[in-house]
Amino acid sequence: MNVSPIACIPLLASLLFVAADVFAHSNAGAFGVDDEHGSAASGNRHSDEPAVSGRRYPATIIVDSRRVHDLVIKVNARIVNSRDLYVGKSVEKSEVLAEIESAELETVQNTYLGIVRNMDAVQSFSVTSPQKLIEGRMNLEWRGMSASDIELIELQGKPLKQVPIRAPVAGYLYSLNIINNQILNAGVQTGLFAATGITIASIADPAAVTIEASIPAAEAARLIRRQAATVFLPSQETGWMSVPGEVEMISPLINPANQRQLVRLRLSGLSRSAPLRVVNGMKILVSFEARDHAH
């Protein structure tokens, strides 16, 4: 049977339309997978997941305990005038965190001031007067008074009713164990400089925090030292908080069980206004910038 060429045109057009439609849906790139679990780029992202450009990898926070400084009070006292303290808050060295009132510490201050006022008389009958002065100063410092506070009571000639508690180092509040008007029991003193004391807070040096991620060997091979990265930390306010980071070390060893390599990162560009709430072993996410954005 002879078919006119003109009659075939509508049939051919419909076949081409169906083929083009099938080809478009066979392209996996058209669905825009955005992570290693294959979730769609739009419509399926959970509200608590960070919006990341690039593949995300699970990682773990490691806190070096040698860079975490405990703040210990070794005198019975009451906490007053707490300065809006919370875990993760950035503090400067010698910054006043709170103040304490202590009858015991006031007595020790008066004893020290008595030696200072009568130093000339003490020297006339005692050859150990300089040692007594040094011992009295050490006694105050051991109980938490700073050198500047001791100089202040020497200048004023009277003890401080409220003694400032100052940060020994700059960093972030890693733990906090006090509230305003709390009574502190430092324990029983068994010697001149021996008492149990109570830890009221700890401060972590920013360098104490590192991140360890297990990356597929093929992906780790593309990384270089100091390459820019993004670290995503859990946040109570926004779900996730992005912090700049960079690659510090890429292990040359490949785990034969899972074909992954250890990549260590460090935080960079931390904002003093942003809290750093991290604990050792915390599970987080990291992603790596393109090589063009590496330092």
Structural commentary:
There is one protein chain. The chain has 295 residues and is α+β, with helices and mostly antiparallel strands. It folds into 2 domains: 57-64 and 207-293, Elongation Factor Tu (Ef-tu), domain 3, CATH 2.40.30; 66-199, no CATH class. Helix content is 24%, strand content 31%. The protein is built from 6 helices and 14 strands. The strands form 3 sheets. Strands 1-10-13-12-11-14 form a 6-stranded antiparallel beta barrel. A 4-stranded antiparallel beta sheet has the order 2-9-7-4, with no helix packed on it. A hairpin with a 4-residue loop joins strand 12 (239-255) and strand 13. Helix 2 (103-117) runs antiparallel to helix 4 (129-142). The longest helix has 21 residues, at 5-25. The radius of gyration is 32 Å and the shape is elongated. The termini are far apart. Mean pLDDT is 79; it is low at 8-53.
